[in-house]
């Protein structure tokens, strides 16, 4: 039988990208273009019903915008925050609303058509204005128009979502990815995005094969084309020949068999041949993923990315809503532990905030945003505490850069405890508080930061991005995003050794641990706890059970002396060959 290499060498109908989530799928392409709401122009019979729908949509839009505005006011200077105020004023503009209602009565057309038409008139005037400021405002009005129409159509972000398709898009936000997964998307292919963009991470957690950073998939692939997505090697085949279809169908079947084999490892420990046990935890991005976690044989949840709730709900959850979510997760995973990470909003993660920072990854993200939005932070802390009664929840702070941020956060946590005691709530008074080690400033002072907290977890996704000054989601620089760059290995060694001096537990929850090639390196460096996507746990286990710790340590000792990524990668590949360890790609 031909190999992947042979097949790809011969194929002219392929495009290449970054292999973002493993797996092979064959299906129909669905070209997804964002924000295009189809306007229903049809006549109506029930005028009162239409006016009631309009009123409800205006109120829902106001509710959404008020939340955005509240944050904007705390975050931005008055002038910029005023954009949202202006949008809110449009929603309350009596003349506009009267006009729309009157036109509904007279023209007997769908409210969405009248809203579109009436607000577009405003915009046209603004676009024709000579003042740039007014032209800009026309864009803001587009946003409010789309929001009202979307709410009239009682839709969240997209108009049409087809089921069981391969989604082809320029880019995908985490919210898009989740929405599509709910509609059983088979695969994702995007023009932009890198391996650690959040859309890619979510694809991996949901076990949906994905190829990102193809540059031109949306140009090459037409809606309805038959496509094959190879999330192992990062290729997409367009309108495959019979031979290609046959080849990939066989590979898919082989993969299903392999997954069955791996399931047998579920209850076995991840222990090296010479007896060193590595605890494998699961990263959870989407609440629904918990079932996969339970079946994966994970020791617990090492990272729960709570910000995904915002994407799932489309808005900030209340304290009560959060209590329900966290308590459910904690009881499902009991007696295992769950580490809930505070909302890591910002960077590429949250398109809910409708303003753009010039440099979001270096901006108001994670703990920085939470400390400035204390109401939001306190709501979450209270909810986490209220869910912690069974003592199996830990709380972790993202994007910590300074010691003061930890102290300030702990002060807020203590305030919440005092409040809850007064309100007679029961909670784990000794809840463990930890931090992500993902900003180089923390890495270089690991021992000192460790002294302030109960545990730490290395986030390689951001650590690599900030260490090498390379945007984790930008495919133009993905070559430079090197997990085997010598400095990455050296900083990991530094963190691990320094943390040992502090005697505080240290784990690693970045995607590096999900790269099966990196596993012997991480184990050899001395890590004993890894948190990875649930789908990767069986593969990681299979690999760990196939080498000796002392050999992995030797491998690391030699890699730490090397100067280029290539040398290190070659050495690790050789380790796999010498020890006869198969990686996923070779297995299929
Ligand atoms: C990381 O940065 O490695 C991490 C685990 O967090 P996230 O990917 O959510 O930023
Ligand atoms: Mg991070």
List keywords for this structure.
about 600 residues, alpha/beta, binds magnesium ion, binds phosphoenolpyruvate, 25 helices, eight-stranded parallel beta sheet
Can you walk me through this structure?
The chain is of the alpha/beta class. The protein is built from 25 helices and 16 strands. Helix 2 (47-75) crosses helix 6 (132-152), helix 5 runs antiparallel to helix 6 (132-152) and helix 13 runs parallel beside helix 15 (374-386). Bound molecules: phosphoenolpyruvate (PEP) and magnesium ion. Residues 201, 303, 305, 344, 438, 459-462, 509-510 line the site of phosphoenolpyruvate.
- Quaternary: single chain
Point out poorly predicted stretches: none
SS elements, strand count: 16
Q: How many strands, which pairing sense, and closed or not: the largest β-sheet? A: 8 strands, mixed
For the record, give the distance between the C-alpha atoms at the N and C termini, rounded to a whole number.
12 Å
Supply the helix-strand structural class: alpha/beta
Specify the number of helices: 25
Globular, elongated, flat, extended or rod-shaped: what is the shape? Answer: globular
Strand content is: 5-15%
Q: Tell me which ligands are bound.
A: phosphoenolpyruvate, magnesium ion
Mean pLDDT: 87
Sheet with most strands: strand arrangement: 1-8-7-3-4-5-6-2
* Computed Rg: 26 Å
Helix-residue proportion = 40-55%
């Amino acid at each position: 039988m031909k190999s992947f290499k042979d097949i790809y060498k011969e194929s002219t109908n392929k495009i290449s990208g970054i292999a973002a989530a493993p797996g092979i799928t064959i299906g129909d392409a669905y070209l997804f273009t964002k924000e295009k709401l189809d306007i229903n122009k049809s006549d109506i019979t029930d005028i009162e019903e239409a006016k009631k729908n309009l009123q409800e949509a205006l109120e829902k839009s106001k509710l959404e915008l008020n939340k955005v505005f509240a944050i904007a006011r705390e975050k931005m200077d008055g002038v910029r925050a005023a954009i949202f105020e202006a949008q809110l004023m449009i929603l309350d503009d009596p003349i506009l609303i009267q006009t729309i209602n009157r036109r509904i009565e007279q023209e007997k057309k769908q409210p969405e058509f009248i809203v579109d038409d009436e607000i577009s008139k405003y915009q046209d005037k603004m676009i024709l204005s000579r003042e740039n400021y007014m032209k800009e405002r026309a864009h803001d009005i587009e946003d409010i128009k789309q929001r009202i129409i979307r709410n009239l159509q009682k839709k969240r972000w997209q108009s049409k979502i087809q089921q069981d398709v391969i989604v082809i898009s320029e880019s995908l936000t985490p919210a898009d990815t989740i929405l599509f997964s709910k509609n059983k998307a088979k695969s994702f292919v995007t023009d932009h995005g890198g391996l650690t963009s959040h859309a890619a991470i979510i694809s991996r957690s949901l076990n949906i094969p994905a190829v990102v950073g193809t540059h031109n998939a949306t140009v090459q692939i037409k809606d309805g084309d038959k496509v094959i997505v190879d999330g192992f090697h990062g290729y997409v085949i367009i309108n495959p020949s019979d031979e290609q279809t046959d080849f990939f169908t066989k590979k898919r079947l082989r993969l299903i068999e392999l997954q069955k084999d791996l399931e047998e490892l579920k209850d076995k420990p991840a222990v090296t041949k010479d007896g060193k046990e590595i605890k494998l935890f699961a990263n959870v991005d989407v609440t629904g993923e918990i079932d996969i976690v339970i079946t994966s044989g994970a020791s617990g949840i090492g990272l729960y990315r709570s910000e995904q709730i915002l994407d799932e709900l489309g808005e900030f959850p209340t304290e009560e809503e959060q209590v329900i979510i966290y308590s459910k997760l904690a009881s499902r995973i009991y007696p295992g532990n769950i580490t809930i990470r505070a909302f890591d909003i910002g960077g590429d993660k949250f398109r809910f905030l409708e303003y753009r920072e010039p440099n979001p990854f270096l901006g108001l993200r994670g703990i920085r945003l939470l400390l400035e939005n204390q109401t939001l932070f306190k709501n979450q802390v209270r909810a986490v505490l209220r869910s912690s009664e069974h003592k199996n929840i830990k709380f972790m702070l993202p994007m910590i850069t300074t010691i003061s941020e930890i102290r300030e956060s702990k002060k807020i946590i203590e305030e919440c405890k005092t409040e809850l005691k007064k309100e007679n709530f029961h909670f784990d008074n000794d809840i463990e508080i930890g931090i992500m080690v993902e900003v180089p400033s923390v890495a270089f002072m690991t021992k000192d930061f460790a002294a302030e907290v109960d545990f730490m977890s290395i986030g390689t996704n951001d650590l690599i991005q900030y260490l090498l000054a390379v945007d984790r989601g930008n495919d133009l620089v993905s070559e430079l995003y090197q997990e085997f760059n010598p400095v990455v290995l050296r900083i990991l060694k530094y963190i691990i050794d320094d943390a040992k001096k502090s005697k505080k537990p240290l784990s690693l929850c970045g995607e590096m641990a999900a790269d099966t090639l990196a596993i012997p390196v991480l184990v050899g460096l001395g890590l004993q706890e890894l948190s990875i996507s649930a789908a990767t746990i069986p593969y990681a286990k299979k690999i760990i059970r196939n080498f000796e710790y002392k050999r992995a340590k030797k491998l690391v000792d030699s890699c730490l002396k090397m100067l280029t990524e290539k040398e290190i990668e070659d050495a690790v590949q050789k380790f796999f060959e010498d020890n006869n360890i198969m990686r996923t790609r070779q297995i299929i």
